[in-house]
Amino acid sequence: MASTSDRLLVNSQLEHLQARYVGTGHPDLHRYDWLSNIQRDTYASLVGHHNMLQYVALCENESVGRTKYKLLNKMFLPCGNPPERED
Amino acid sequence: MHLYNVTLQRGGNIQAAIYGSFSAPKTHEIVVSRTKVLELLRPDANGKLQTVASTEVFGKVRSLCPFRLPGSGRDHIVVGSDSGRIVILIFDAKTRRFKKVHQETFGKTGCRRIVPGQYLAYDPKGRAVMIGALEKQKLVYVLNRDSAANLTISSPLEAHKSRNITFSIVGLDCGFENPIFAAIELDYSDAEQDHTGEAAREAQKQLTYYELDLGLNHVVRRWAEPCGNGANLLIAVPGGGDGPGGVLVCSENFVSYRHQGHREVRCCLPRRSDLPSERGTLIVSSATHKQKSMFFFLAQSEYGDLYKISLDWENDTVKDVVVRYFDTIPTCSSVCVLKSGFLFAASECGDHALYQFRGIGDGEGEVEARASAASGGGADPLTFAPRAPSNLALVDRLESLSPVCGLECSNLYQEETKQLFALTGRGPSSQMRVLRPGQTVVEAAVSPLPGSPNGVWTIKESKSQEHDSFILVSFKNASLVLSVGETVEEVTDSGFQTNTSTLDVRLLADDSIVQVVPGGLRHILGDGRVNEWRCPGRKQITSVSCNDRQVVAALTGYELVYFELDETGQLLEQEKKDMAGEISSVCIAPVPEGKLRSKFLAIGGYDATIRILSLDPQDCLGPLAVQAVAAVPSSMLFVNVSTSDLDEESGALYLQAGLANGILLRTEIDAVTGQLSDTRTRFLGTRPPRMVGLRIQGKEALLALSSRPWVGHASEGRFMVSPISYEALSYASGFSSDQCPEAIVGVAGTSLRILVPEHLGGAFNATGCRLRYTPRAMAISEDHKVVAVGQADCGVVPNRFVTAAAAPGGEDDDMEVEGEPEGGREVQLGAVRGPADQWGSCIEVIDAATLKVSSRVDMEDNFAVTSMSLARFEGQERDLLVVGCARNVTLQPRGCDGGEVRVYSFAEGGKSLELVHATSVTDVPRCIEPFQGRVLVGVGKALVLYEMGKKQLLKKSECRKFPHFVVTVETAGDRIYCGDAQESFHFCRYRWEDNQIHVFADDVIPRYVTASVALDYNTVVGGDKFGNIFVCRLPADASREVEDDPTGGGLLAAGGNGADRGGAPHKLDPACSFHLGDTVTSVSRTTMQPGGKEVVLYVTVLGEIGALVPLTSKEDADFFSHLEMHLRQDNPPLCGRDHLSFRSSYNPVRNVIDGGLCEQFSQLPREVQARIAEELDRTPGEVLKKLEDMRNKIM
């Protein structure tokens, strides 16, 4: 049985992780946040790997610079506006 | 199954380029990142780019920046990569290597969203660098020097801001005040919380200044202001007295000057006149040129137009921003302005170029936008029509295949080795290239000769001369002397005997010349007198060899005569010896520097031996060593090779012998005892190789002339023998002249050729044919000797191209000269831009013999070609071309308004295409493969089997069990191997009896397949989008079960235990897996040399050509995996990424050995080599030999 202090410790460690690593989940994570996070990661990966950026640019017939700009802009709100939340 | 991965040609794509003085102060050099490879380029005196060093880093370089400490003349290189580390390198000019100075870890490995590495910025005064991630993290490192003038690095200072996407970072020039870094950031925290969308609409990109407080040693966010949502790039403006400081913010359609406490000065970019109104103009790369008195910027738009941006400023106040159209060159990922007046343009796709400035764009009549003018800041921008470059003149180009979309191997030209046909480039740089293995040579001159020569030599007039003055061509009963000057002319008063053939000619150390004719020796002195030595009796010279002071001649009747140049300048007979057998060839070693004579003489005998004789006066012509060889040595040559880049003196003397059976034999000679050791052999061709000495980059090299010519030279610590992509030469000699200091003069048939080797070390020689749009699919018809290429581009207006008249002078234009005669010489600058869903597409038939487009079929009605294949249908006598195309294709999300499978027949002997019929399909037909007299077409999620019909193709069978999108189909027997766009391979079986295709096995790993080829009945090799190459194999028992099952596994697949699990009844085993770091676009199985081993050849988006070689014995696999293991420990990658972790980026590396890493063994210091070799129970020589053999097996 974990004592209250243990649980607090776990909580604070989790908070620390969430602050440090973007995208660390928590039990009440909304589907929207999860999806946004995944998509941002994907776009970041496409921009970071030059071969994939070139691949996307080749398909879309755009310059690599334009493709990168488009993908970065998409990172802003990859899943559109957030749903209404009840807090 | 073990595979050995070798890179045959490194990827040509340049991802980033920086300019600086890296090897020594005041040098003009460029360091480029080819993503996986770091290279140092240096333009030589003629403006030709030389690759000084090239190192594979086994990681991904993402950003580079130069860094110079105050007061220092040399630049360091700061590298941002996927290693989670900042690495600072310096280039060591002596060893010609990059050396790691610092490596500081800050995060996890991999190209992640919040781990810095994507952006780098440096303080121009050399005090700090900032390394940034795409989101949140930015770290500042303070760099300084210690008392020994070494670079020191601080611990990182954080400038993080959560939920901020970074678009660009730059270091401001603010003199010796605190360093400031500027960034474009976009904060999404509010927008993500507000469901009404209000916050998202109001969100604005911010221009933020981060100040590094050197006194307090921390970073503060000093200033932030909205800068418009189109902003994408920052350019630092010189400051601290040289300029006003601040930044230029490049945004879509305009550029503005911004600084803290300064009003915004905004200038609209002039637009291309043919651009649709909904398209913007985005600056994608820029370079700054700064002199004492002035500075300007060159910025390039996404369409390739260069703009010259200059500022009108006074006392830190910018009054005006002036943007002028400068020139149009291919779109670049980086441009560098060199202080020596050159511009290096690293293209996004296609060849890179070095230009020389002819003007700085201040001519009259150019479009000029000003911030102060009404049009400058307003909504109505100026327009211009792009033209061919007039301010820039092309000096040199660096070949790049990137991006390669397809590859086929075929021996269409019936040559000794297969040719590779590659679809390369994009838009205006699209080409179908024919690659032949071998060094590229440029034919500088061809002139006919009056007969069939039996020898050619070049001679200088004196040792002090730099260039050759005579070419001597020998015929059966005459010799022709040509003098080299402005023109090449015959001379008659040269002192050479011309009424007989010549065996050898040589300039001796005292500037006299020896001409060897069959009857004897003629020693032509400097003053024109000739001393002759005649062969005794009726004897004749059969073979001769000379160096600077010594001559040795083999006479008929087993006799050997040895001459030496004495102090008085007389060539005197020193010794004579009767040999036991007939002599096939003789060779004398070159005189070592500072010595009077060489000690060694090699004699090849018809008894298939090589004997080494001593030339020591004490023991003249005494035997030293003997080696029995496989065949008669017909030609020999001594070459001094320095086996290590690290010290030039570490050379060794090698005897290279061409044997009568076409084998080149290489043996090391002990410099003291003359003993032979470490013999290596290589098959060169069907003719006995003739060896010719040569100088390449000032070092000794060799030419071996067999059924094709070969060149051998030392590079990266290895002596490499590689074929020359040229017809067979019978005789050759090195040739040096003003225009080309290291050329070759050779005889092919009855003509004399002057050849210049280009970009030494390239594995392939490419010739090409320009295409209209980006190539997407190809099919080679061996019957008609034509190549059909399907091309498609989205977002263009079909059949309308931006063209401009070529610059006067013509031949130096760098872009696509349309070969069509009607418009004169025109430069193609790409297709005219249109709406994103509009496609331009066509099929071109290219005649292989002329490499010209012989006919074109345009795709009308917004159809785009997606696939093609040749197929011979049942009952047909000829191959037909089956083309898949789709209408109104949209990429995101993938979709189309139906597709068609069109069948074409070749007409006019293959020159043109005739439509037979078209068949509608419901989705994109992405792949086509002939199968048992029918065709298999992958249509969206389905695989359809079609039979030939009269009016259209007849659907015979269909399988709809694929999860996403069938992208590759391969067949073997009854089996069909399908690659899915997201779910790896599916093995299917076609059953004739019930006419059904069913999936009997699939993969457990979701791989995004891009290319595949079947290796055997149970095995497929494929590449995926993320840069992995892998082999999937059906387990033997599963294979047996499927074959034994009377329903062929059909019952299981249909209703049994497969369907309810959501997959096929059998699963594939991952046999091999390897991360290349580059997306494979095509794989094929082929042999690259006659009688060679079958290898898997792959090409990638970034232009790399590589091969996977199967290791046949357990012993080899063991040896190489141990060698790889040792190298991982003793030779960690340069950019800080762990080798094993890089190769396992997506899936753990399995059964593939990294040949690129193993080959770095030759670059290790001697003692490390010895230690590793000892642990492998071998000598370093044996290890090197094994590595060399491995490579020689391929090509």
UniProtKB/TrEMBL annotation, chain A:
<dbReference type="Pfam" id="PF07189">
    <property type="entry name" value="SF3b10"/>
</dbReference>
<dbReference type="GO" id="GO:0000398">
    <property type="term" value="P:mRNA splicing, via spliceosome"/>
</dbReference>
<dbReference type="GO" id="GO:0005686">
    <property type="term" value="C:U2 snRNP"/>
</dbReference>
<protein>
    <recommendedName>
        <fullName>Splicing factor subunit</fullName>
    </recommendedName>
</protein>
<dbReference type="InterPro" id="IPR009846">
    <property type="entry name" value="SF3b5/RDS3-10"/>
</dbReference>
<dbReference type="GO" id="GO:0071011">
    <property type="term" value="C:precatalytic spliceosome"/>
</dbReference>
<comment type="similarity">
    <text>Belongs to the SF3B5 family.</text>
</comment>
<dbReference type="InterPro" id="IPR017089">
    <property type="entry name" value="Splicing_factor_3B_subunit_5"/>
</dbReference>
TrEMBL record, chain B:
<keyword id="KW-0747">Spliceosome</keyword>
<dbReference type="InterPro" id="IPR058543">
    <property type="entry name" value="Beta-prop_RSE1/DDB1/CPSF1_2nd"/>
</dbReference>
<protein>
    <recommendedName>
        <fullName>DNA damage-binding protein 1</fullName>
    </recommendedName>
</protein>
<keyword id="KW-0507">mRNA processing</keyword>
<feature type="domain" description="RSE1/DDB1/CPSF1 first beta-propeller">
    <location>
        <begin position="14"/>
        <end position="398"/>
    </location>
</feature>
<keyword id="KW-0539">Nucleus</keyword>
<dbReference type="GO" id="GO:0003676">
    <property type="term" value="F:nucleic acid binding"/>
</dbReference>
<feature type="domain" description="RSE1/DDB1/CPSF1 second beta-propeller">
    <location>
        <begin position="443"/>
        <end position="755"/>
    </location>
</feature>
<keyword id="KW-0508">mRNA splicing</keyword>
<dbReference type="Pfam" id="PF23726">
    <property type="entry name" value="Beta-prop_RSE1_2nd"/>
</dbReference>
<dbReference type="InterPro" id="IPR050358">
    <property type="entry name" value="RSE1/DDB1/CFT1"/>
</dbReference>
<dbReference type="InterPro" id="IPR018846">
    <property type="entry name" value="Beta-prop_RSE1/DDB1/CPSF1_1st"/>
</dbReference>
<dbReference type="Pfam" id="PF10433">
    <property type="entry name" value="Beta-prop_RSE1_1st"/>
</dbReference>
<feature type="domain" description="RSE1/DDB1/CPSF1 C-terminal">
    <location>
        <begin position="841"/>
        <end position="1162"/>
    </location>
</feature>
<dbReference type="GO" id="GO:0006397">
    <property type="term" value="P:mRNA processing"/>
</dbReference>
<dbReference type="InterPro" id="IPR011047">
    <property type="entry name" value="Quinoprotein_ADH-like_sf"/>
</dbReference>
<dbReference type="GO" id="GO:0005681">
    <property type="term" value="C:spliceosomal complex"/>
</dbReference>
<comment type="similarity">
    <text>Belongs to the RSE1 family.</text>
</comment>
<dbReference type="GO" id="GO:0008380">
    <property type="term" value="P:RNA splicing"/>
</dbReference>
<dbReference type="Pfam" id="PF03178">
    <property type="entry name" value="CPSF_A"/>
</dbReference>
<dbReference type="InterPro" id="IPR004871">
    <property type="entry name" value="RSE1/DDB1/CPSF1_C"/>
</dbReference>
<dbReference type="InterPro" id="IPR015943">
    <property type="entry name" value="WD40/YVTN_repeat-like_dom_sf"/>
</dbReference>
